[in-house]
Amino acid sequence: MQPRTLFDKLWDAHVVVPETDAAPATLYVDLHLVHEVTSPQAFAELDARGLSVRRPERTKATLDHSTPTLPAGADGRLPYASADAQAQVEALRRNAAKHAIELFDFDGGERGIVHVVGPELGLTLPGTTIVCGDSHTATHGAFGALAFGIGTSEVAHVLATQCLLQRKPKSLAITVEGEFGPGVGAKDLILHVIGVIGVNGGTGHVIEYRGSAIRALSMEQRMTVCNMSIEAGARAGLVAPDEITFDYLARTPRAPRGDAFARAVAHWRSFAGDPGARHDAEVRIDARDVRPTVTWGTHPGQVAAIDARIPPAADADTAKARDYMGWSEGAAVAGRAVDVVFVGSCTNARIGDLREVARVLRDRRVHPRVRMLVVPGSERVKRAAEDEGIDRIVRAAGAEWREPGCSMCIAMNGDLVAAGQLAVSTSNRNFEGRQGKGARTVLASPLTAAVCAVTGEITDPRAFLSTEAA
Amino acid sequence: MSTPASSSPARDAVRFSWRSVVLPQRNIDTDQIIPARFLTTTERHGLGRHAFADWRTRADGSPNPDFPFGRAENAGAAILVAGRNFGCGSSREHAPWALADLGLRAIVSSEIADIFRSNALKNGLLPIVLDDTIVDELLARPGLELVVDIAACTLALPDGRTFAFPLDAFARTCLLEGVDTLGYLLRQDAAITAYESRLPAHEESTHAR
Ligand code: SF4
């Protein structure tokens, strides 16, 4: 047999009916994740056709996008942003109950952002296919799972048949060798990668991240990298599973136990690219070239190293982005005043991210100009952080410690950045209006974001780290 | 609103004359097509009034003169020509729902994002990818009557120049014959059941709960 890539193996293992010129492949879906925003119309389609959910136990639902991040009031009611938002949550409750789908609801202690919950519970397994009506499903690829976002029509397909019609995408290898410098992490790497290949550099492809710098990343950091594959236009991101993956899974509540775990690991090990397997394209990145990186524009490919200047506007689109963001030509990125700092989202709201933020905030104060929100990715992350006292550090610094959810990443639950304000955010999209109409977003790592919160301006975290060491 | 280019009824379902409306920006993401604050709906209809909500008005609330939809000369336009990498970002199917609700039947760009393209096809919105040079020409000349032939996968300009665009054979069949893709998948039940008998045991135990 020809040597196969990790992606080839994942694809082959899930083909129910092979693809032909006339028809796409029928691909089996091992795990279907559902949230309240992209599912109601799919359940309605099932109802209209009198269909049931084929594999309810392989469908897991959570509430994250429309949910408030402030706790219930004295009357026990959650402060929903609108009646529609509440209706959407109630619709998912009804649909989950009707079809016997497990829902991570407010009272269960396991609710959170869909791409945080799947991995931490051990539902996300190597060698599987995972889909969700959400483009950041790519996150789960960090475990060596083929995971990608789908539309609501396809959500109905998967609910009813556990399958999808798919043409096989191409494969792009991104090889990162070497060691990162101080103050540089997974978020800086993926922003740098998108800057190199562009926001459409991955279109039509699945990306496999590999090389010594990727192998050295923790599972959480690999998730941060895979999460933003979609920001380069890719369907999915992948990292081959290894000991770091298996150790992580062994500590999750739902992964197999005992002998079953050992057998599962043997199966998972087979999901690695064969020597000599061919990718359709390859990009090589030297980890030493990656500096702390932020976005300056209105898409995630408009990035700059934090010690750089705003590039000259080459065309009308870049000039428009620069004007929207309120930069003057040639301005230094560092030093710009910051109004809001948001730590959260499926990119960077896991416990490791919050620890990094707490390390900066400990015994310091958020700058008086800045409103800082820290939103844990899930109930489990929140509890773990509170056990370590991270909530107290955050509050003592003058930042807000919130309930889990997508929050200001998508700004549909009432957590908004005001028009014209500049937000430094650990989320994944800096599109116009993403964090509120007229809001200006600078994407950054949790470390950079926390440092900016303290100084009140965009700040190179390396300068901060060096004063800390002194 | 769409006028058949040919009087032959048999051709009506495959050949359309559509007037173009133009948005020259590159990387128009689905947050621009329909901002997240309109996603709290549980319906798929009536989203056209929120399409490009933040581009319709200027900061002071007055109508944005550069925004083409809603202008009288664009009433009935059914083909949107846009800059490269249209539909990037969020997978929300609300984006093609909103565009179709505006009366659009096709999107022309030199690149269309993967998930958007897939979602568009499921809603009768035809994604047409053409070379930069021709897209640039179309961007510079709004209001053209363009003839799209779905069977031949071609787009013709009023001067007769005709350009082929790629269209997956299955998607083409679905558009021409109105194939119900969910019905098509449901008919594969036997193959799906056979596949399921081979699922790894450790996955069954993880998900059984
Ligand atoms: S945190 Fe943001 S990107 Fe992630 S699932 Fe929620 S809205 Fe989407």
Write the SSE topology:
The complex is a heterodimer of chains A (470) and B (209).
Chain A: H1 6-13, E1 15-17, E2 25-28, E3 31-35, H2 40-49, E4 59-62, H3 83-98, E5 102-104, H4 114-121, E6 129-132, E7 146-149, H5 152-161, E8 163-166, E9 170-177, H6 186-197, E10 205-210, H7 212-215, H8 219-227, E11 236-238, H9 243-250, H10 258-269, E12 281-286, E13 293-295, E14 303-305, H11 316-325, E15 340-343, H12 351-361, E16 371-374, H13 379-387, H14 390-396, E17 400-401, E18 422-425, E19 440-443, H15 446-455, H16 461-469
Parallel strand pairs in A: 3-4, 3-6, 4-5, 6-7, 9-10, 9-12, 10-11, 15-16, 15-18, 16-17, 18-19
Antiparallel strand pairs in A: 1-2, 2-8, 13-14
Helix pairs in contact in A: 2-5, 6-8, 12-15
Chain B: E1 3-4, H1 9-12, E2 15-23, H2 30-33, E3 79-82, H3 94-101, E4 106-109, H4 114-121, E5 126-129, H5 132-140, E6 145-149, E7 154-156, E8 162-164, H6 169-177, H7 181-186, H8 189-196, H9 201-207
Parallel strand pairs in B: 2-3, 3-4, 4-5
Antiparallel strand pairs in B: 1-2, 2-6, 6-7, 7-8
The structure holds iron/sulfur cluster.
Could you please describe the fold and organization of this structure?
The complex is a heterodimer of chains A (470) and B (209). By secondary structure, chain A is an alpha/beta fold. Chain A folds into three domains: 6-166, 2-Layer Sandwich (Aconitase, domain 3); 170-289, Aconitase, Domain 2 (3-Layer(aba) Sandwich); 293-469, Aconitase, domain 3, CATH 3.30.499. Chain A is built from 16 helices and 19 strands. Chain A has helices at 6-13, 40-49, 83-98, 114-121, 152-161, 186-197, 212-215, 219-227, 243-250, 258-269, 316-325, 351-361, 379-387, 390-396, 446-455, 461-469; strands at residues 15-17, 25-28, 31-35, 59-62, 102-104, 129-132, 146-149, 163-166, 170-177, 205-210, 236-238, 281-286, 293-295, 303-305, 340-343, 371-374, 400-401, 422-425, 440-443. In chain A, strand 13 and strand 14 (303-305) form a beta hairpin. In chain A, helix 2 (40-49) crosses helix 5 and helix 6 packs parallel to helix 8. Chain B is an alpha/beta fold. Chain B has a single domain, classed as Aconitase, domain 4, CATH 3.20.19.10. Chain B contains nine helices and eight strands. In chain B, strands 1, 2, 3, 4, 5, 6, 7 and 8 form an eight-stranded mixed sheet that branches. The interface between A and B is large, with 85 and 61 residues. Residues 64-65, 113-115, 134, 136, 345-346, 406, 409-410, 427-428 of chain A line the site of iron/sulfur cluster.
